[in-house]
């Protein structure tokens, strides 16, 4: 299946084999394009690391609710096609004083969701049984669930019809204004090329899509762009489930303040024998990669342990493991997302730079949008920096996929 524009004749590079890069590469495969995917390490070993992520529809910006809804549909399509579970069917429970407002946003977007009482909460998240009752209302996002992160990375990496280039990219360079000449027949684009220079190769492409996480701003700077990412580091902790794993174990977001001063999120690992818990927030990091307050990561982990002791009696509070990863927030919010462009519009030497945080859940819909832009379609308006996607005060719109 080819998209209008360059289609299968496109030569496209994707820099970064985390979940966004792999989703983009697989979406290009869907369009009949064989991308080169550059990754210096093991696919999925950067900001996409860990064994689970929370898929949620709920966001402050209604546009992100729509993107999440579209992404959930693509997760289902890929799950059926690849023959592996990518998102659990256990749902996600959100607790907090703003639950009814969030519920209204989900219903407005056509996302199945409803309020739940304390009894049903204990059925959905059996780990809460035996704790003191909280006072905040709770909501079930029925089609949310735990993302099977490692299964997704493995399945997509295997399904991409292209080359995984195990090399570090030092620079990307877009075609300059007016570069190139008319294509075959005197029309239909130019032969201008974007350039990738890695440790052991130099290659030219019609389009380069940079999904390099913490490395994206530096590559963008080399191409003449400033991508305003705020660096940080985050910690989450994995705990064992006491006794036999429950048949259903929903994800959890708790912003009630009943058991901790901040908010937490949690998602089950495959098999529901363990639960990964994180406290919201991060430790600031400098552009050179140094963590401003290394002890702060320990405090975030300690906060997760304290929450488990108070709020989740069904977990052993002695940690099984820790995951530490970088955060890359945009100035307008922790869920902000945008795509910057260098070079000409369209597949004639353009470079697209993806930046944002909490992107795992959105990766399938985002990857398809990036793939379409890579082969000649217009970049979705929501993804342009001026749209400030993820800022709740921005005007709303919905994705097309």
Automatic annotation (TrEMBL):
Keywords for the protein's UniProt record, in alphabetical order: FAD, Flavoprotein, Oxidoreductase
UniProt feature, compositional bias: Gly residues: 177-189
GO molecular function, one term: flavin adenine dinucleotide binding
Positions of region (Disordered): 174-195
The keyword Zinc-finger is assigned to this record: no
Domain FAD dependent oxidoreductase: 11-372
Cofactor(s) for this UniProt protein: FAD
Pfam families according to UniProt: DAO (PF01266)
Name used for this protein in its record: Sarcosine oxidase
